[in-house]
């Protein structure tokens, strides 16, 4: 064989070996990128599924983008801008250092696929296919938008929520043209599936929050309706009498059991408190209720009832023990768990378990005229809304007391007038 032929054959063999080596290196590099992408997807999955919120999607895009060695990664969401006209808006983006972000690009925010010349994308992606390759091989209608972002090669994969085509995730290469291996594409498809799972869970969580808000609104509306009915009924009950003592008795009974398990009303007379009414929900506690009614209210300013009368502001105590209740009632204390009234009669205090309490002032003509004390059921904790309702009820009772006082003054004035007229007539 001539030496020239041998040399040509050797050169061809060398070129073939170099090509085989380059292809092997490219496959190995693609497999390494695939492994890095899968590792990034695994790390991102752990983070996203633990905290599935949209803000963390950008962190996930960074993980996958760095692993895939691309310049940009982004997520677009589909939406209808008019019947039959589907558009997409970029929601998330990661850009490598030195690569300009495109999320503020005006044509990437709500423009229709058709208007952008991307009708092929809509057709392919909605059918579950992928858009991939070098931009200079794409249809001419697609190239201007992609070239304006500096994209030379890309992979775009659809995101499906069930059977709904929600949008797509894209991977841009702006440095050079690039061949995308099947191994890389398969790994990137897994990332698209994870994004779909996170978006589906976020949507489900938002639906749950929406249902919770609706339920809370309904509960609030029902509570407001009950509150309004309760206050309207209170006004009617208070208006049915002009006797101050009867108003206070009605106030004590009215709050049981709607607001309280026990209620105590003390009034201010000559600078001191006097026990005016006690009501309770448990018939077995009648002896204790009678003892509390006969007992003298507290004088110690540290006592919550006395402090409310002194400061004129309502308060909530989330745990009132039996001992505190005895002090609150200012009854004489015997053995632990028992109390005695002002006459020294022993009464079992065990029916009053530790519980939450509220104290609100009664005001007549701007001055504190008394204190309404409410003791909740043992399982209930009072909230600010409960205090607001108790304060509004106290205002209505206070108005009734003020009206009763005006009525009493009018009667006294009439009596004085009649007595004077009687004296003059004689």
Distance between the termini: 165 Å
Shape: elongated
- Total beta-strand segments: 14
Indicate the mean pLDDT: 85
For the largest beta-sheet, the strand count, sense and barrel status come to: 6 strands, antiparallel
User: Helix and strand succession?
Assistant: HHEEEHEHEEHHEEHHEHEEEEEH
Which structural class matches the secondary elements? alpha+beta
Strand order of the largest sheet: 3-2-1-6-5-4
User: Count of helices?
Assistant: 10
Gyration radius from CA atoms, angstroms: 40 Å
Helix content estimate? 40-55%
Contiguous uncertain segments of 5+ residues = 327-338
| Range of strand content | 15-25%
Write up what this structure looks like.
- The protein has 426 residues and is α+β, with helices and mostly antiparallel strands.
- Helices cover 50% and strands 23% of the residues.
- It has ten helices and 14 strands.
- The chain has helices spanning 3-50, 55-68, 119-126, 143-147, 182-239, 244-254, 286-294, 304-311, 322-329, 384-425, and strands at 72-82, 85-95, 109-112, 131-134, 153-161, 164-173, 262-269, 272-280, 315-320, 332-333, 338-340, 346-348, 355-364, 367-375.
- It has a six-stranded antiparallel β-sheet with strand order 3-2-1-6-5-4, sandwiched between helices.
- Strand 10 and strand 11 (338-340) form a beta hairpin.
- Helix 5 runs parallel beside helix 10 (384-425) and helix 6 packs antiparallel against helix 10 (384-425).
- The protein is elongated.
- It starts with a helix and ends with a helix.
- The model is unreliable at 327-338 (pLDDT under 50).
